[in-house]
Design goal:
alpha+beta, 4-stranded antiparallel β-sheet, 4 strands, 58% helix, single chain, 8 helices
Length: 195
């Protein structure tokens, strides 16, 4: 009998116990990963949530020499919830998220901040990349709105860009103001007052 077999025979029960502990630990790690994913992803839209956005932007200036920020605010969520039901409101938010998911990837990161607010961060980009992104996003949203699902998704957007020592808080503030200005414009076109 080899030394390994002798050791295995002598330590048989202890090895079985150790293997059970390893199996339990692997199960706990898998459970923790699923739990963490649930905490980081918005369950309605599948996009990373506000916590993930804050984690991501917390170190943004250290790993991105430039950044574009685009804030999005879905129009008419209250109308859908009040007049068509919360399921219709959920579908509206899911369509908004889908429009962002379809153009995200690589250096384009989209998040749901909560309620009807979303944000996209484009890292290491040129300023004209933001315009290209918005053009592509608007075209994609228009295609999604061709579905015969009774949900027309209108979204206000505001973008800002920073490079060479940019201050993230300044970019966020400008993007937020521009988004609000776009929301006012959209409401005015519909003859509504902004809220």
């Amino acid at each position: 009998m080899s030394l390994i077999n002798e050791f295995m025979a002598d330590a048989g029960e202890e090895i079985k116990d150790l293997m059970l502990l390893v199996k339990e630990a692997n199960g706990l790690v898998a459970y923790y990963r699923r739990l963490l994913e649930r905490l980081e992803l918005d369950s309605l839209t599948g996009l990373p949530g506000a916590n993930k956005f804050h984690d991501f932007t917390g170190s943004l200036s250290s790993h991105a020499k430039s950044a574009g920020i685009i804030f999005f605010d879905v129009n008419d969520l209250k109308y859908y919830n009040d007049n068509k039901g919360h399921h219709a409101g959920d579908l509206l938010l899911q369509k908004a998220a889908e429009s962002l998911i379809n153009v995200s990837g690589g250096n384009v990161h989209s998040f749901r901040l909560g309620g009807d607010e979303f944000v996209t961060v484009i890292t290491n980009c040129a300023e004209n990349d933001i315009d290209e992104f918005l053009t592509k996003w608007r075209a994609g949203l228009a295609e999604l709105n061709k579905r015969e699902d009774g949900i027309h998704c209108s979204i206000a957007a505001g973008a800002a860009f920073g490079d060479d020592g940019y201050k993230l808080s300044d970019i966020l503030e400008v993007a937020d103001k521009r988004m609000y200005d776009d929301k006012v414009r959209i409401k005015a076109e519909k003859g509504q007052k902004p809220r």
